[in-house]
Predict the structure.
Amino acid sequence: MRIAIVISLVSWTASAQLIPAGRPLPVSDKRPVVFMNGYMTSCPTTFASTFSTADQVFQRAGRASVFFDNCTAGRQPIEELGNRFGAFLRELRFENGQPVDQVDVVAHSMGGLILRSYLAGKQVAEGAFTPPGQTLIRKAVFLATPHFGTTVALSLASDVQANALASGTRFLYDLATWNQGTDDLRGVDAIAVIGNAGRGVTNTALFDDAVTSLTSGSLGFLGAGRTRILPHCHITGGLVTLLNLCPSTAPGIALISSDTHDSGRIALSFFDGNDLWKSIGEAPEQNTFLSTNAGLYVRWKTSADAPLTLDSVTATPPTGSALTLTVRAQQVAFRELAPGQRLSFALRSGTQTATEVVMADAGATRVFTFKAGPLVGRVQPVAASISPLVVAPGMFIAIYGSAFTTSTATAPSQPYPVTLAGAEVHANGVALPLYYASPTQINAILPEGISGVVKLRVRSSAGEHTVNLMVEPAAPALITSDGSGRGNVAAINAVTGSIATVQNPLAAGDFVALYLTGVGNTTRRDGLDWANIQPTVTVGGEPCVVGYAGRAPGYAGLDQINCQLAAGLPNNPSTPVVVNSGGRLSNTVTLAIR
């Protein structure tokens, strides 16, 4: 009997492609892939109904597949499905008993919104976000995800999920703006694959896959080169075919039925780290619509940061007629297709009117929050712009925007007043010391001990604005000699005290002091504020052994790392330097070595 059971298990393992839920995953040098299905008109469902034989295709490529089926939870809100997905990831185990530390993800349609909701920690309660400390995700491929909704959602169904999927909902707006008015996916490397074989969204041929439009499905809001377009449908069969929204002859974008299916080839190439995926399908800049058009999302707020009800919104290009946006529940206005150029917006709420002129770059849906008074555009380390969009406790930050003060003023070196030229900044209600304030920039230091989503409020005589900041344990940003965040790092020879420059280079084996911000919380010891998280440093790809990491003595918000350069480093006036702390990498800068 025992032999029979063993033979049975071996036979199951050898023939299985999709690992059943709860089963351990095989240990491999390639990360397992989690597949996520989208909106299901009826439950229960199967893996094959969405992804065909993708598990077999991926197995032949040496990758194990596991299925997160949102149907098993019933018709839950997308936010709750995001929470369940987090629990699903944390329960994954390898056959050796070790937890799965990272997976890659293929998400179809609404599955991509479940993934994004999980990464943001979005909760059903309005404005509530509890992002996971570790995302457990390396790379993600979004297949036909309606990032900014679909106008056909409420035509096909009406329930809590369909209501959230409709274009212009608060759910989609909040998801797109949860972190400093945007969404950068927490550093997960991601691409989108979208179809254009349908005509269901605006009855415009080649603009959608019957459900998701090109402007809604594009990942252009994250950056260029993140989207591929295929002549595919959202799905095949069902209402999409019956209503003639997409031809039955066009492939389903997620039905990966063979090794030659383009979506599967793109996903495997992207996961394997080669560039084949960049040659499959069409890039946005090659596409008739995305090369010249954008989608639009608009909200309007008062100077006191209170939402205004929207009665009407129009957008007028430099030449041509005004375009009318659709207003959802008097809160969010949207449009699927608008010229990707400078637009003049006209907004009306009751008797109030306003005009705003902005640049709507082509290639994706652009989100605009209009308001009088202070408007925070971006918060980043003063040292450099880093990715993902995170800050750290005790970090020296620069807040960019408008209407922060009524005049330009620079703070004295000591003391640092909480109010400077009319500007005040609070993080979770705690006033921050300000170093500099002007109408467009404020420099401040975040307090230690904060984490997760923190409310940053800027207030001036013109009003106030509050945004979410994603605070992680560490977010190193190296300071450069010219303040650009690129080029030569601010460093000294830790023995002689001389400034390291191209004209005064360091030698292999020297001790160097590097200056940065973002090492995170510290503990006082032996008269110094030591970083709680020990960073690592590489110079020229070789370890620079760290002796001290923490606050630079006597300088709030400024951090210092002392390390010894590796022996044998070659002469190079532009030797690359990178700091890793808490799993986050700094900007890459250079150091002269002789």
About this structure: DSSP finds eleven helices and 36 strands in the chain.
